[in-house]
Amino acid sequence: MKFAPAKPPIYGQTLDSLQQWLKSAGEPAFRAKQIMQWLYKKRAKAWDEMTNLPQSLRSTLETSFDIAPSKRLLDKQSADSTEKLLLQMADGALVETVVIRAPQIGVGLNKSRKTICISTQVGCAYGCKFCASGLSGWKRDLSAGEIVSQLIQVCHQEDDSTPRAEESIASFDNVVVMGMGEPLANYENLLEALRVLNAPWGLNFGARRITVSTSGIVPKILELAQEPEQFRLAVSLHGATNEVRDAIMPINKRYPLETLLPAIKEYGASKGRMITLEFILIDSVNDTLDQADALAKIATDLSAHINLIPYNAVPGMDWKRPSITRQDRFHDRLKNKGARTTIRREKGHDIAAACGQLKLQTESAA
Length: 366
Ligand code: SF4
Hints:
Blueprint: H1 15-24, H2 31-41, H3 55-64, E1 71-77, E2 82-88, E3 94-102, E4 113-117, E5 121-123, E6 138-141, H4 144-161, E7 174-177, H5 187-198, E8 210-214, H6 218-226, E9 232-236, H7 242-248, H8 251-254, H9 257-271, E10 276-281, H10 289-302, E11 305-310, H11 324-336, E12 340-343, H12 357-365
Parallel strand pairs: 4-7, 7-8, 8-9, 9-10, 10-11, 11-12
Antiparallel strand pairs: 1-2, 2-3, 3-4, 5-6
Helix pairs in contact: 1-2, 4-5, 6-9, 10-11
Iron/sulfur cluster binds next to loops.
């Protein structure tokens, strides 16, 4: 289903498309650069702030594009400094965006390194068995403007709490596309959004600080490998053999390990970047030593880094988080086999930071 709002968000426009729009509205193309400056560098929140544009153009923009980045319904701060925003799109759809702060020694929380986790779809069709986002299926893709507007929402919020250095445009350090939805299933809109984020007239944010995460859509991984930008890739593996991965990720039936792993290797070779393999540890499902051995072999062959994430229990689902002893046993086995790995004891556990959980809780409470 495609949602076409009466007024699309301005944040989905590229410099080219805005120049085209201006021409068709009888306005000079150079105005596009001025508008982009107001949106991204000066962070205008209303058309009337754009004082170097004629009043007539401001009125036309007002009736044609939405400048508000989306409505913030909920803002939950966890004890470990992860913050989760529940945003409402123009059609009422709920989307989650997460701000993960990594405090640095000697500076306050406001100066911490910030990673923003953004969503690309409302719901998800891929049905990974551990994930709250897939529980009620796929509703629709987010437009490029809706994807960028999640970042603008965070920028506005950060500007209010921390004065921005003159030279910095983005108010964050890393972007991970790991929220609700399968990013590569919304490929065109995703790339358009990431190009706005990356563009010098946009947020001027380096592609190497953007990680795209996928459940493993092989043809799209290969397509992304051919794009000129150096986006980082993270693959949700979660099972190191087909038998175990089949039980966790239905997509494995379509793209089993024998087709997925060569595609990951090709991506790594074309970008010269290390790939991350995400592995959610689920008690007695994929946390055995046999799985650790198979995973270490895969990661070594791909020169990949393994990110272990102990499962975050989802209400209504049977699986459990392994004990710390089992988590450590798995982690140690990987290290002993020579694999590069870190274990991320889930940030934001107390605010339901795993993707889709806050939305799920809000909808069930309604
Ligand atoms: S983990 Fe990602 S791809 Fe899988 S169901 Fe959840 S949102 Fe979809």
